[in-house]
Amino acid sequence: MTKPDTKEDLSTKIFVKNWSIYKKIIENDNMSHNAGYSKLKQIISYEMQRPFSFVDLACGDAYYSSRVLRETNAKTYTGLDISEQALSFARENFRDSEIRADFIRTDFINFAEHIDPGADFIWVGFSMHHLETIDKLQFMKDVREVLADGGIFMLYEPILLEGEDLSQYYKRFKVTFDKFWKGLNNEESEYLLEHVRETEKPETTRDWIALGKEAGFENAAKVFSERTGLYEIFKYK
Ligand SMILES: C[S@@+](CC[C@H](N)C(=O)[O-])C[C@H]1O[C@@H](n2cnc3c(N)ncnc32)[C@H](O)[C@@H]1O
Questions:
Q1: pLDDT tens figures, 17-54
Q2: pTM above the 0.85 mark?
Q3: 127, CA 20 to 30 Å: which among 9, 100, 103, 166?
Q4: From ligand 1's centre to the CA of 71, what distance in Å?
């Protein structure tokens, strides 16, 4: 069943109502956007030697995506997000780009209704972990359906350690947060910690790979771990 296009719950509230918190997180590079998106650029440059379409599911403000796609063969960009505020920044970030960019406000679970089949490259940054495991699998199956032959799907997502449960994950997140994260005041920190504690559902490295294989991808692999061990990038082909 299709979900409504304007979902608003704890998983989206921080982005829909308060983009400034996530903006500070990006500006302070607390989630290693810089290194992760550099890895994405490296893979795109190597794999996409011909004109290609790029789909960014839960694109946010597309700050990093818009820069990664410069000087690549990207011809079209489609960004989907639930937050109108984020999408308005995303439009700005593509304003002077030669890439034809479209933006759609929707719950990304419904992305297949908005994307033409035959997408060459589909990317999700820090967003699939809000889905239940069964929904992650369906999401990956849907991605496979809309990808072109030989197309690539990549994720940058939080990782559960083997044997770790969600409360242990949250404790590990909090230790990392206290040690590495910068730039948020007390109120913003509390808001962010509530978001992580109440809504994040990461998978282990092994399970992120297994889900891709179960969804039908022949190749599924981890291609990057960021410095704190919280986030990894996966590539499916
Ligand atoms: C952590 S941010 C990631 C933004 C960007 N992909 C990045 O790498 O920085 C999560 C984004 O997902 C969006 N989002 C959260 N839940 C969503 C949903 N159900 N459907 C569409 N977008 C959603 C938020 O509005 C936000 O822009």
A1: 678 899 999 999 999 999 999 999 999 999 999 999 99
A2: yes
A3: 100
A4: 25
